[in-house]
């Protein structure tokens, strides 16, 4: 009975996914092979847009910035999240220490940027408090690093929470056994806790990897990828080429590139994690 | 099995129909029109116009304001292919209007223009900005003359007067600098073109016009010299930091910079801050850099209010556009925002802006189309990025000009 109707049960979800996810992707992939301004019908240009990608200095900058975002995300929101989780896990009232880190997570990317814009703008609050005249959001790659700190401020809490969940899920016995054998501190963490947390770490790092590769809103609201495109990420380049320059074909080529890079990075990372 | 497949196909057909862009919408009779615009901050003023039009012509109007112009433009372009069509929408003159007119998306307003010119509600001088292929499209949503808004209290404090010549302006900037006040506002976001267009128009307006039509290059000596002059002004320390995100209205109000160059619409920001013209702030026309030019160049812009050729109720949309040009509508539109009007009959309350409007109408100035409208969109995008880079890194001016020219070469190779 169930077998007879199983396609019917799956159909609504399958149709939604097909219409809202796969169809736009196929359409975007098609547009990447055309010249299209959003008005005239798309004109087939083959792989010309991908050829242009190789010759575009702005793409080189956005690729560099995206890599900074990926590396920075691994070190700061993920690395610090782990540190905060480990330091606050086994102490009395540890949950209260984690609360301040969680609060910024409630803000949207755009809201986050609105909060930090007056702080980081030249002559803003950070300049006044630190007594310096640094243009945090003007010069590259400092502007990307400044935005990474803002990103860390928001993401630290949720990463901490996930790592705490990971710590709580570790069975007590191996840790107690290791302690009886004399392991403690760094050695206990490195050789016992860390390996046991691996499944959860794979999820946190995987999510952070994808999120950092498609960084958009925070950059768009704080710098709009500028000045002079020097803080653009691949996602910002995709948006600007498509909707600001109305070059839908080239913007779609950037979108395809970003999708391939994100898919490939996720696949390679997860395959390695699963295999190990 | 067959039944479940049919059900699946049925659901798919429903979804696709809902998402699809059919063009066969039946004409409707509307009593309230939607007005999509990229001026989200002006929603209150659009609402007031809707409240006025309802008793006046029996058509209400509900605005939907966007604050991100890229998102707005993408929405309007997408609406051409769907059934979610605005009855009225704001746009830009120049290349952007031409682009959508060529696609036959915009309603012809030639009759409205002819009638309004005859009635004295629109000036013939404005028509070229709205004329494509001998026909008019859209009506002026607003007009604006560009000049310098200045903090009058700061000027009074240091005994400064509105400058009559470029040298006067530089002396004013020097005096302010000696007193620890930044003379000028500029920014690396969106309005990064303002000083380029002003210096170009005040130095060689013919070259500015040739640049916007692809007959001159950004790497030509005249353009390079303008960039060098702009660099000198930045190096002299006259400008606030371009990365300062303070709203320009607050910049002027607080005296962070003594002068802010914008269109007359900036007066709305002043009135929203309860600043009094003639007491707290004032406005002057920026003198030419090149004193030998026969007329003072003044940047001019006009933003269109349009209707789609395939509007849900074309008669209602056209009726509204016609009403928009009348003195009754424009009196309200200009007065509520403290701005100037496209209708010559409207009395401008602000004395300085009233004088500028009158002088501009009498041919005292050489009106120069604002860079934003005068420059084709792909070149504009490269230029805004380039000027944004320049204001933070003035030494890079040659590289910036070369980058813009690269975009210009690409564009003009297919659009001459």
Automatic annotation (TrEMBL), chain B:
Keywords: Signal, Sugar transport, Transport
Transport in keyword set: yes
InterPro entries: Bact_solute-bd_prot1, SBP, SBP_1_CS
Signal sequence bounds: 1-24
Domain of life where this protein originates: Bacteria
A GO biological process held by the record: transmembrane transport
Family, as annotated: Belongs to the bacterial solute-binding protein 1 family.
UniProt protein name: Multiple sugar transport system substrate-binding protein
Lineage of the species this protein comes from: Bacteria, Bacillati, Actinomycetota, Actinomycetes, Streptosporangiales
